[in-house]
Amino acid sequence: MSALEIHTGGCQCGALRFRVTGPLGTASICHCRMCQKAFGGFFGALVGTSEGALEWTRGGAPARFRSSNHVARGFCPACGTPLTYEEPDGSIALAIGAFDHPETIPPTIQYGVEAKLAYVDTLGDLPARNTLEDLEAAAFLDSIVSHQHPDCDTESWPPEEWAGDAWSKSGSFPND
Asked: Which of 83, 93, 104, 71 is closest to 39 using CA atoms?
């Protein structure tokens, strides 16, 4: 007997968390202009869920924007992370990047290829280096304190030691 699949994830700030129980559906990349804008990227990466398999475990359901007469897109109202693609029939796809282990969800098909940005196919040919190899940015990188939620469920969030951090509460930079 095989163990039941459990997939977890959430937004960048940790206000919204989800769990999918059971197998995931088709994992895809969509290059349409609407997905490019919704994800703020070159494409949207989504994976389907089975009916009733999705549970919001922290913060309730996401805020929604009706991007067309057929689709609503869910996002975290606190940090803006794109989370869902929802159709009128009740089917929901989740943003692959919002999962705690996106590396386990490889896309198997591309949609909207007529709108694919031409350079997407050549990204692998670009020079590449690890973040810590950028010696000019080392001091800046060393000063970064991440407020991103970790890639796992937590009992509470944010940590108590951040309670005095005015920026994390306001979302504004000092001197804005």
From this structure: 83
Provide the whole-model pTM: 0.84
- Could you read off the pLDDT of 58-94 as tens digits, one per residue? 999 999 999 999 999 999 999 999 999 999 999 999 9
pLDDT at residue 175 in the model = 46
Tokens of 164: 């005095």
Is the link from the previous residue into 158 a cis peptide, with omega within 30 of 0? yes
For residue 105, give the CATH number of its domain.
2.170.150.70
- Whether the Cβ atoms of residue 18 and residue 82 lie closer than 8 Å to each other: no
Strands 17-21 and 44-48, sheet pairing: unpaired
Our count of domains for the chain comes to: 1
| pLDDT of res. 122 | 97
Q: CA 4 to CA 13: how far, in whole Å?
A: 28
Q: What's at 10, amino acid-wise?
A: G
Domain extent for 166: 1-176
Quote the CA–CA distance of 132 and 134 in Å, as a whole number: 5
Asked if 21 contacts 4 with a C-beta cutoff of 8 angstroms, the reply is yes
Contact 83, 16 (CB under 8 A): yes
